[in-house]
Each structure stands twice: as structure tokens, then as C-alpha cells.
Specification:
The chain is built from five helices and eleven strands; from the N terminus they run αβββββαββααββββα. It is globular and about 65 Å long. With 228 residues, the protein is of the alpha+beta class. The strands form two sheets. Strands 6-7-11-10-9-8 form a six-stranded antiparallel beta sheet, sandwiched between helices. Strands 1-2-3-4-5 form a five-stranded antiparallel beta sheet, covered by helices on one side.
């Protein structure tokens, strides 16, 4: 999903919730040996996609053995021994908050409105982002307009040394230029690959992104082309 620049980093609990939402018949779940995270004894819940078309090898969630709180989430690319993504606590203490930490006296004249947080859950991505999802689970592919990658591209010519946004755009254009040219039933485009993410930029102005093998992107691009 598009991430606004001001969005704070995920906590281990939020990261664990997102990963556990993907658990289903497409996932193998197991428990690994105990570990120590942030000074706390924890056990590791291991989630592994069954389909080899996913570039994700496994996701390991370290859960505090006494309090049941997620302490760390690690995402490994298939075949990798080191995590590509790691979100976790370096220090944590479980204590009961003091009364002064949770008491609040509203100022005079303030209007008080009580709400149930469960009734005000964010409703997903903002309208108008132009992003859609193809597929499900570990093989989900996001389709987005090419403007999402090319916005802010510099005009032809040298980039000013003090133009940070221009430097970033120029680096992005160089990255896109390094992609390999691919052809298929979906058309022609360029493919970028890392150990964990594949990106397909088609000549008709679409971008397909997923933690999947390129063949899954090609199938998504073909499906999108037939639907248009």
C-alpha cells in the first residue's frame, strides 16, 4: 500500500497482525526453538508460504512467553539466512501504568466526546490512489499507475547538485533504465528483481509489484489487460 511520508514505523504488534492476517490454507505454521528478544524469553512462530511462486521464504514472529506479546517480526526471502525486514523491540518492560500516566483533567470549557475505538478503524487506502490488488494471500500483486514511480522526474538535462528531489528522480530513472526488457501475452515492459520483490513496468503505463516470482506478475498483467 502507498505509505505517506509521515506514517510512523510499525510496532511489532502491528507487523504481527498484518502477517497473521495472511495465515490460511496457503501457509505452513510451525513453532521453532525459544529465543531471547529485548531481554525477554520468547518462542518463535514460523509462517511459510506453501507456493514456491512467493519470494517470501518465511516470516518469524517472536512472542513473549509470559505476556503473549509479539516482540519481533522478521521476514526472510526464500533461501536467505538473514532477514530482509526486521521489526522488533531492543528493550521492553511490562509494568502496570501509574495513575498519573492515565489520568487526564480536561481544561475548563473543553468539549468531551467519548468514542469506541473499535468503531473508528481506518478504512484502508485513501480514495483515488489508483492502486488495485490482483490475487490473494502471499501471491497478491499490486497494480498501480506508472506515475507512482515516475512522479517528480527531472526535465532533460543536468541535475542541480543542490536539488535533492531531482537527484532522487534521476536515481530512479537510472534504476528503471537498468531493468531487463520482457515480452509476453500482456505486452512489453521492463522487469526489476530483488530477492524479495519483483516489479514489472509495462509500456502501456502500468506497474505491477509483488513479493512473487516474475511469472506471477506476468499473469497479473495479462489479467489486467484482458479486463481493460
Amino acid at each position: 500500500k502507498p505509505v505517506p511520508a509521515a506514517t510512523p514505523a510499525l510496532t511489532p504488534q502491528q507487523a504481527a497482525n498484518q502477517v497473521l492476517a495472511a495465515v490460511g490454507p496457503t501457509t505452513t505454521v510451525s513453532v521453532d526453538s525459544n529465543v531471547t528478544v529485548a531481554g525477554q524469553a520468547a518462542y518463535e512462530l514460523v509462517l511459510a508460504p506453501k507456493d514456491s511462486s512467493s519470494l517470501v521464504g518465511q516470516v518469524r514472529i517472536a512472542i513473549d512467553g509470559h505476556n503473549g506479546e509479539p516482540l519481533r517480526v522478521q521476514v526472510f526471502a526464500r533461501g536467505a539466512s538473514s532477514p530482509a525486514i526486521s521489526v522488533g523491540f531492543t528493550s521492553i518492560t511490562f509494568v502496570t501504568p501509574g495513575p498519573a500516566d492515565i489520568s487526564f483533567t480536561p481544561p475548563a470549557g473543553a468539549k468531551i466526546t467519548k468514542v469506541n475505538p473499535g468503531q473508528h478503524t481506518p478504512s484502508g487506502r485513501p480514495a483515488g490512489t489508483g492502486v488495485s490488488a490482483i490475487g490473494s494471500g502471499w501471491l497478491t500483486v499490486l497494480e498501480l499507475p506508472s506515475a507512482a514511480l515516475t512522479a517528480g522526474s527531472p526535465a532533460p538535462g543536468p541535475v542541480s547538485a543542490n536539488n535533492a528531489s531531482g537527484d532522487s528522480a534521476a536515481a530512479l530513472q537510472a534504476l528503471i533504465a537498468s531493468a531487463t526488457v520482457e515480452h509476453g501475452a500482456w505486452g512489453t515492459g521492463r522487469l526489476l528483481r530483488t530477492s524479495l520483490v519483483s516489479v514489472l513496468l509495462t509500456d502501456n503505463g502500468k506497474v505491477f509489484v509483488g513479493a512473487v516470482q516474475p511469472s506471477v506478475l506476468y499473469a497479473a498483467a495479462t489479467k489486467a489487460a484482458s479486463a481493460s
